[in-house]
Amino acid sequence: MFVFPWYALNDEIKILENPANGENLELSRTDHMRYMKVPFIINVMSGGQYEEKQKIRFGGISSGKKFMTKQEGVCRIEDGKIIFPDEWGIKMHRHDYYELMYVLEGSVEQKIENSSYVYHKGEGCFINRNAKHQEISGKDFFVVYLCLSKEYVQELLEYTHKATGSIYRFLASSMSGKSSYKKDYLYISCTSQDDSVNKAYDLFEEMTKELIRQEPGYLHIFCGLVERLFGVFQDTNFYKIRYVTLDCSAEEQLFEKIKLLIEENPRKYSRQELSEILNYSGDYLNKIVKKFTGLTITGYSQKVLLKKAKLLLEEGDMSVSSVMEQLGFHGSSRFYEMFKEEFHMLPGDCKKTHKNV
Q1: Mean pLDDT per 10-residue run, the chain (357 residues)?
Q2: Candidates 3.40.50.1820, 3.40.630.30, 3.30.420.10, 1.10.10.60; CATH matching 250-356
């Protein structure tokens, strides 16, 4: 049996309740790009002899929803390793947030871009938002994931602007506009397994307790614990950190430029507009966008606009007509039709659902 527990994960994963057992839920991913709408999340993945080990409780922070999913009898075992099946949706993906993966017990094999690596107890990696990766297999494993949104990282860097060390340099570099398409990560390995792992374990456990209890001041305490964790990893008495950069193709770099442009300035773009901005043929740019998204430039910019509209409706007091006007949508019937097709709800229902959470 493989246990993949999450808590309060409010991203682009659909959570479908199982009426027979409310604790076992079916997950359905909606995008190869994974988004996070909360500052930070802790996830746990365990299997093999550690499948029932829950000393570090799974936790997160959003609307307080809590769920667990279990997969049983669908794993393939090879040389004592659990091979993760494709139907779980654990395929090559990248996040719109930073992910620190750390192995507390056993080992996990992970593919990052075109290479595979096996991480053992006391090892892990800190992946930026551009590097594609995939969990492949695990052997008696217990792994914790610390996910940090780009907004949280930005605030962290502003608050700790004098902080030094490889982790802070890595985050600062990856947040700069010049690194919008750069693929890199940090490889973290312990120097003294017992002491090093215990220090990290204790901090992950404290973080999770704060997220579950949500007592006054827990957000500040959690942020402080993140800084302490970074401090432990940067302490050469306990850990070594190696910076790894990955090559990416010219097409990937160009798509990241297009993606950054459209997401930072969401509106309806044409081939000609992007051609004038980026100095490439409009047909070539359209080909690049279609290769990485399956959509035309118009379709992709419309998708980004609709996501922006949904965000404004959820997080603000703007009316549907005000959102349409701000984002340049003309014709309410067409807007309602596109919105329902994209999110399976009407704009007004989106506002009601968010207010009732």
Answers
A1: 37 40 41 64 78 45 40 68 70 87 93 88 93 88 89 91 89 78 88 87 87 85 95 94 81 80 85 88 92 90 89 80 85 85 82 54
A2: 1.10.10.60
* pTM of the entire predicted model: 0.66
> Which residue, among 320, 304, 305, 303, has the nearest Cα to 354 in the 3D structure?
320
Concatenated DSSP letters of 183-224: EEEEEEEESSHHHHHHHHHHHHHHHHHHHHH--TTHHHHHHH
CB atoms within 10 A of CB 2: 21
Helix axes 250-264, 282-293, angle to 10 degrees: 90
Q: In whole angstroms, what is the distance from residue 190 CA to residue 25 CA?
A: 35
Place of tokens 């506009």: 177
What backbone torsions phi and psi does residue 95 show, to the nearest 5 degrees?
A: -110, 160
User: Where would I find the beta strands (DSSP E) of 17-96?
Assistant: 26-29, 33-34, 40-47, 59-60, 66-71, 76-78, 81-83, 94-95
CATH code assigned to 2-246: 2.60.120.280
In the chain, where the domains are located: 2-246, 250-356
- How many residues appear in the chain? 357
User: What is the Cα–Cα distance from 43 to 64, expressed in whole angstroms?
Assistant: 14
